[in-house]
Amino acid sequence: MKISIITRHAPNNYGSLLQTIATEKIIAKLGHTAEIVDYIREDESGLKGLLTLLSHKSGWNNSVFKKWLYIALRYPGDRWAQAKFSKMRKKYLIMSKRYQSLEDLKNDCPKADVYMTGSDQVWGPITTGYHDSAYFLSYVDDKAKKIAYAGSFGRTDFTKAILKEYAQMLARYHAITVRENSAVTLLEEMELKCAGQVLDPTLLLDKEEWMHFIHKEIQGRYVLVYQIHNNPILDRYAMKFAKHVGLPLYRVSPSLHQIMRGGKFIFLPDVGEFLSYINNATYIVTDSFHGTAFSINFNKQFIEILPNTKTGSRNQSILQLTGLQDRIVTDYNDFSIATKMIDYTFVNGIIKEERKKSYCILKRIIEE
Predict the structure, then answer these.
(1) In a shared domain, residues 126 and 227
(2) Rounded CA gap, 43 and 52, in Å?
(3) With CB atoms 3.0 to 4.6 Å apart as the test, which of 29, 122, 142, 321 could cross-link to 135 if both were Cys?
């Protein structure tokens, strides 16, 4: 069958791209054909996207000078990242024609046997601060089969009005699976049936499958920072931790402004090089869900510093599943975690069983 997948494939970050790559490969392993809906809103791309983001930053949005300074600091790097990620999407993904609005999707809906909402924060607020009904498959005919794999709300603090709207849109699905235990709870609040809590797509591919993307191994011992949120506490801890263990600090990011946050800066590596930096790191310091997921998948010694936002439930869910909550650091003067090595025998057993269960659930909801 042909599976049309809408997901957050286009943000310029590695987690979005890698989970989309994994979703396509999983569908192919099940014997079906996947096509990613190349949906990129005008207000989430280029200068318009940057201005949309700026409109929610009160610290930069209260004077014309600060606005122009923000644009001058961010736009060159963002444009560079956009070009690089666009090239990688074309290289690694099978995509539909480009859609720039919900109306575009409604007027020329992709043809498929099954329509699927993919993983990542598909049902959370987008750059505008509001959700987008396209990720709830609102453009698809009521009679068409609609499913969700590893959907995520990204947060838990929704108003009753928003949850009521969500419930109406999600009730049109044939089957819904979610990524986090907090999402299971939200479905219960909306009185909707959950077909299963499943692994993020990146964890359905094992390390050996991801190794095919790596063409060059990074040499030497180092501490790697993979950071999504602006958190000076993480920056300071990473530098102190690297000094404590006597290793150089590397920082990998698609965001040029992170160059000032400490460590040798690796800007915009290709997917294979990005994975190589993770695979060869001695320690990893991260606040990212996918940074955590790949650390676990690659059996790395990692340190988790939860983001100081409302999105930390994503990280906590995978840590609870694998029994690795003790990797969360809250005392930023304590570096003893460097000697507390993770025994991955138990963790790998959990992931293996959850991987098998997730594959079975996905196969069932596609084919039943």
Answers:
(1) no
(2) 6
(3) 122
